[in-house]
Amino acid sequence: MTPGLILQACRRAADADPARVGFTATRRVGGAVQRNRARRRLRVAVATVMPHHARQGHDYVVIARTETLRRPFGALVQDLETALRRLDMWLEN
Q: Which contacts of 25-30 are long-range, i.e. CB under 8 A and separated by 24 or more positions?
């Protein structure tokens, strides 16, 4: 858990498959407009980090928090990197 997001990971049977990512934002984040904006911000952060650093053969769920909307984008990317490292899913290039 980081200030901007929560990351969950689950290993799949086939390790060679690419990582799959799902996004969720509950009503605690805000109304529909705020939830959609939070998911869009998370999608861009994931597109920036995960193709290069996430382990294959895993499913990831990225959960928006209320801070997702207020955090600067650079801090949101750092939150995702921190979460990947904490889950031991970080791959160095």
A: 25/63, 25/64, 25/68, 26/63, 26/64, 28/66, 29/64, 29/65, 29/66, 29/68, 29/69, 30/66, 30/69
Q: Report how far residue 65's alpha carbon sits from residue 27's, in angstroms, rounded to the nearest whole number.
A: 10
In CATH, the architecture of 5-86 is 2-Layer Sandwich (3.30)
Model pLDDT, residue 42: 98
pTM, two decimals, is 0.91
CA 59 to chain CA mean position, Å? 11
87 HSE (CA, 13 A, CB side): 25
